[in-house]
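Worked example 2:
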Amino acid sequence: MSTTTTRTRTRTPEQRREQAKALHDQLTAQVAELAQGENWIAWLRFTANFRTLSMNNSWLIFAQRPDATRVLGYRQWEKLGRHVRRGEKSIKIFGYSTKKTVDVDEESGEEITSRRAYYPVLSVFDISQTDADEDAVEPVEITRHLVGEDETEIFERTAAFMRGRGWDVELEDIARDGLNGYTTPSTRQIRVDAKMSPAQRAKTMIHEAAHAILHVDEIEGESGHRGIRETEAESTAYVVAALLGLDTSDYSIGYVAGWAGADVDLIRSTATNVLRAVNILAEDLVDDEQLAE
């Protein structure tokens, strides 16, 4: 019968903070490496064809087809080498356009040109409603959900910490595909999808805790830059999870690269906020005297 021994040594809070900084630097380097590879180029080629959806359109899509992941119009899919199958029902969303109008000032007779916005109804289809031709541009996944257990009970420990700060934290069956968790400042709620693996739930719990620590005012008012918020939250998850012995690289590197646009300078610029959140969480979650080698 064999046994596995984890070597530990005494580590001061200052050493832990230095390790956290080194982990953030490591994440930045891994994102830079990804951005130089073929997978990133292929991912950009595919995702560049998808315009950013408004919150209203996201909910319209969810209401009509909850399992939708990527939507485009009929002709746009054809340009990517895919065709919509006969008989598929379209998803209705609102487009955005402007129309030039010319008014005449009654007093001066001067023509005044302006543009007015209007929102036509558009028909789009999810990728699952299409078939690929031989020359199709295929999606490339740069994030992979974590598999495995949460051996050191990261989810429960982080949840308990956030509950102690006045947050209501629960697992929930989240119906919206692609949404792993969410934070609602107005009700001080954090929810994590119960259907994920224990390891993925643990990482997502840290991610949502980072939002609650760093971004309450921005999320509440929908201010700030979401790409920066997501970069900071996932970077925090990567660092804290690593300090606790969970490697989240398969998910975190691609997620950070996607939201930051693989902009290494942007990722570096978030370090102050990331390390602030890391230190708040690690103060409670990481045992500095018995931190695994």
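DSSP finds eleven helices and twelve strands in the chain. Residues 8-42+143-292 form one domain.
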